[in-house]
């Protein structure tokens, strides 16, 4: 009776540990699951239509661009602060090759504001390559404000602004932030190989378990092939540890009642006597 209770207690404890581990991973995921996206804008070309140089001093003419987002359909003056995010490029030469190969400007984007937004793009000069991008109004050489429609997708949309003194062509898009996937960027997946999971992520954010791991979060090790799922378990891949009352390489052999000599078992701690034997321990020869 005591052995059976111990066996039940061990089984329940193991199952509870598995359940608690799963719940913990679910709670972590719930905290991480939130929509996260990025607005990207890349300047393709910028030219002035006047004979004057872009910079006051043309010897070392450097420029940079600033993007401002406002979640409103009203185009807001550049003199007002950006209400919903801003981004700057690095400082680079004003020649078209440098401008067209510059990295995109990235601004964190609130997905609640998908649709029409106001975008302000400013071209500014930095008289020297040693200057850091600053937002002083006196260094502005171009200002462009427009409304654009934003949706999540990898495809770039094209835009242009043709002014009296300058021309700007650009491309833009909204994409999921790093480690976020799905139509609303709410599926979080980040490859890991630690006690909280063993997986990589595919292009759509699905978890792909590493070899020898399984489960929704790839936190369950795959036991030794043939290990009894009912009577065995493992704490690391390739193991086969037996619950109390079971034994053998694959935990499929029951443990006899202590002291049983000529008996068998179908369940732990039984002692079913073989033919010709009797007694509590099957140690009495019935043929004598």
UniProtKB/TrEMBL annotation:
A single GO BP: animal organ development
Q: Source organism's superkingdom? A: Eukaryota
Query: What keyword terms does UniProt attach to this protein?
Result: Developmental protein, Disulfide bond, EGF-like domain, Glycoprotein, Membrane, Repeat, Signal, Transmembrane, Transmembrane helix
Compartments (UniProt record): Membrane
**Pfam family, any one:** EGF_DL_JAG
Cystine pairings recorded for this chain:
176-185, 189-201, 209-218
Gene3D superfamilies the UniProt entry points to: 2.10.25.140, 2.60.40.3510, Laminin (2.10.25.10)
- For whether the record's keyword set contains Ribosomal protein, the answer is no
Q: Where is the DSL domain?
A: 174-218
Q: Which InterPro entries match?
A: DSL, EGF, Notch_ligand_N
What topology does the record note for this protein and the membrane? Answer: Single-pass type I membrane protein
One cellular component (GO) term of this entry: membrane
What's its job? Putative Notch ligand involved in the mediation of Notch signaling.
Q: What is this protein called?
A: Delta-like protein
Organism lineage string: Eukaryota, Metazoa, Chordata, Craniata, Vertebrata
């Amino acid at each position: 009776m005591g052995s059976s209770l111990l066996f039940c207690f061990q089984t329940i404890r193991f199952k509870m540990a598995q359940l608690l581990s799963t719940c913990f991973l679910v709670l972590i995921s719930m905290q991480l699951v939130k929509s996260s996206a990025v607005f990207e804008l890349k300047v393709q070309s910028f030219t002035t239509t006047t004979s004057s140089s872009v910079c006051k001093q043309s010897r070392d003419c450097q420029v940079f661009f600033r993007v401002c987002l406002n979640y409103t359909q009203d185009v807001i003056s550049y003199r007002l602060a950006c209400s919903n995010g801003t981004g700057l490029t690095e400082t680079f030469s004003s020649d078209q090759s440098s401008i067209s190969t510059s990295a995109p400007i990235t601004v964190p984007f609130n997905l609640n504001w998908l649709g029409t937004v106001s975008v302000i793009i400013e071209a500014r000069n930095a008289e020297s390559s040693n200057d850091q991008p600053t937002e002083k109004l006196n260094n502005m050489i171009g200002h462009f404000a427009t409304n654009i429609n934003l949706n999540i997708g990898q495809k770039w949309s094209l835009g242009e602004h043709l002014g009296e003194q300058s021309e700007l062509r650009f491309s833009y898009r909204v994409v999921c932030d790093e480690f976020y996937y799905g139509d609303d960027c709410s599926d979080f997946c980040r490859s890991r190989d630690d006690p909280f999971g063993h997986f990589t992520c595919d292009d759509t954010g699905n978890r792909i378990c590493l070899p020898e791991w399984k489960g929704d979060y790839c936190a369950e090790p795959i036991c030794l092939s043939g290990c009894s799922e009912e009577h065995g378990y493992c704490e690391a891949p390739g193991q086969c540890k037996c619950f109390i009352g079971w034994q053998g390489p694959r935990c499929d052999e029951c443990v006899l009642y202590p002291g049983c000599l000529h008996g068998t078992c179908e369940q732990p701690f039984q002692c079913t006597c073989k033919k010709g034997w009797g007694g509590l321990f099957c140690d009495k020869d019935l043929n004598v």
